[in-house]
């Protein structure tokens, strides 16, 4: 069955929902687990699930690994180990709201990287859409304070998460540009596999993962399982499918929905958004739809330029 661009949008939104929920669930994982160890446990479950699905759906082909193993390792290090390691470490000193704002800059970074690689600037409406959606995200996660001239402080965790977001932007562009003759499922599986190995090396180097895992609470382990299956296996797979079908630039802008879904989860937990946040949600959705060409802005006075 051929996957349409419209269905690819749905898959991308599902991926961003799982990532949006990660901001809240990660807080439970970090209650009793150090960051690198929690990230390793997350991808332990993710790698098992994704390879079971790969073996059942497509089979494991050594030819794909032989042709792309260097790219899989590099992209796994950047987009899996780099982004998720930075995410877990950064959230120790950064708030989920600030982290969401930083992650929301990823579409801009991805479009810049894509423009550099392909030597082609994105069209004007996509740039306008990105700017509008980013403004909406800023209103949502700062509760309108960003436009009121409030003081903005940058914590160490904020910088770590920003570096991780650059890694994710590189990963988004790289899986389409450098991977050859591999399906989205194969790309997801192998980059996740090598990224998990790199995470494990880092965890054993900077932490004591085995004692930490044995002393972790049931809630923390359950959180890692959820993030591993939903926020890793399903999210990575659906995201890569969206990139393969619609392109990195068009897919990356949907990353702005991550903090929106994070806010919705907060509402479900009993925390209602303010008026400024509701306005920001509307602005974000309009910006994404405009950047995707769903909302078409007609050029004014176009008819007046025609000769009588």
TrEMBL record:
Name recorded for this polypeptide: Threonine/homoserine exporter RhtA
Domain EamA: start-end pairs: 7-141, 156-290
Compartment(s): Cell membrane
Family affiliation: Belongs to the drug/metabolite transporter (DMT) superfamily. 10 TMS drug/metabolite exporter (DME) (TC 2.A.7.3) family.
Keywords: Cell membrane, Membrane, Transmembrane, Transmembrane helix
Keyword Signal annotated: no
Main localization, broad class: membrane
Matches recorded under InterPro entries: AA-Vitamin_Transporters, EamA_dom, EmrE-like
PANTHER family recorded: INNER MEMBRANE TRANSPORTER, S-ADENOSYLMETHIONINE_S-ADENOSYLHOMOCYSTEINE TRANSPORTER
GO cellular component, one term: plasma membrane
A matching Pfam family: EamA
Topology class, membrane: Multi-pass membrane protein
Keyword Transmembrane helix in record: yes
Residues annotated as transmembrane: 43-60, 72-91, 97-117, 124-142, 154-175, 187-206, 218-239, 251-269, 275-297
Originating organism: Xenorhabdus khoisanae
